[in-house]
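Hi all, long-time lurker, first post. I run a small reading group and we've been trying to get comfortable going from sequence to structure in the token notation. Rather than ask abstract questions, I figured I'd post a concrete chain and ask someone more experienced to write out its structure so we can walk through it together at our next meeting. Sequence below, copied exactly:
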Amino acid sequence: MAPGRLFLVPSPLSEAPQERVIPGYVWESIAHIRHFAVEEERTARRFLSKGCFKGRIDTLSLYTVNEHSTAEQIERTAQVMLDGNDMALISEAGLPAVADPGAALVQIAHNHNVEIVPFVGPSSLMMALMSSGLNGQCFAFSGYIPVKSPERKARLQEMEARSARLHESEILIETPYRNDSLFADMLSTLKPATRLCIAADITGESQFIRTRSIAQWRKEPLSIGKRPCVFIFLA
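-- Answer (accepted) --
Happy to help. Here is the structure in token form:
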């Protein structure tokens, strides 16, 4: 039996109306799918109900793929595709498999020659980079860096040195409740001339995107709060 396909479906970054960020053809393309690998079932059901599955949610099978999923659990989810069923992968926000545990499912799909069907949609990383005014031709995404301040400051210094050497924009994210502590460590560690972009709540009503030098940020106190945020700096 030929395997099914794996559709990579974007989801909104905020509570903005879906039609503003999810192309209509995405829903047309996945209307036939009955199997979904999702990061969180409750959120996924709400998202699918607002799309083309209103009134049909009970006909769908949802499989959890998140940071707590074991390799064996993800293998069992992948078996649904290998049995000939099309499946869609949805993360909590933005593009699936980018800074997202769903990447493990995509890897399994490649191992078994499953056709991958990606769709365009909002990416907080790329939307932040394109809005930052920093180098969009040479950049690196480091994801989450150490939580403890001493280790975090050391990593920031390493990243800043690399940025200066390569003229590379450094992109990172943090759990929202740690945004302000990361920002504080950046202000105390990075050099005054280094430019830093704060991109918070992208596409949301409280969207905030601003690039300033570290010296300027030190003069302009800012509380980011518990909002999804992308940090980008360039030495």
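A couple of things your group might point at:
The chain has a mean pLDDT of 95.
The first strand starts at residue 6 and ends at 9.
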